[in-house]
């Protein structure tokens, strides 16, 4: 991960939708805003908006009016792949950036980070990865993005966590505990993260790390094939 050496590739510069692998950049953007620009903290409380709660696709099961910390939201983003968590984080941190539209502000910051990480083929148009033509990347850039994110200790801790229980304050003041499980099945086989994804257009996707190797698979044949393919590629490059 530190040398960025390409050990093997196939069509690694082919532009594709990357589904929820987008959330690697969403998480990275939040963490760098906190750690590098001092815009908020992991303990900030976010109140879930109606638009966040109603976001379609994979969900952290957040409800309108819920109050939850940034730290817990990041787990809700990366473990169950919550699109609701992605939008809530983008809304919250986008308000801290310059510009009239919080979501657009946050997406601009995501794309600024693409330049910093030298992701030359990547453009983001939303924080969650639901199908949009302009939300494009390639396998090589996803590996570089993941490598950059894995340099952050907070990111490494989150994506290596198998289960996490968050404390959420409901709109009526009731406290509820919500447990999320990581969608990355390879955590049980010695891998240390990072993210899964799937949409109809993107197909099954996976970016996962094993020791100092990062494997990215886009548009795998099936949900199960991506696990097998990742293990084979790691064995070949040990």
TrEMBL record:
Keywords: Cell shape, Cell wall biogenesis/degradation, Hydrolase, Peptidoglycan synthesis, Signal. It holds the Pfam family Peptidase_S11. Residues 3-209 form the Peptidase S11 D-alanyl-D-alanine carboxypeptidase A N-terminal domain. Transmembrane segments: none annotated. The keyword Signal applies. It comes from the Eukaryota. GO terms for biological process: cell wall organization; proteolysis; regulation of cell shape. The keyword Cytoplasm does not apply. GO terms for molecular function: serine-type D-Ala-D-Ala carboxypeptidase activity. InterPro entries: Beta-lactam/transpept-like (IPR012338), Peptidase_S11 (IPR018044), Peptidase_S11_N (IPR001967). Belongs to the peptidase S11 family. This is Peptidase S11 D-alanyl-D-alanine carboxypeptidase A N-terminal domain-containing protein. It comes from Stentor coeruleus.
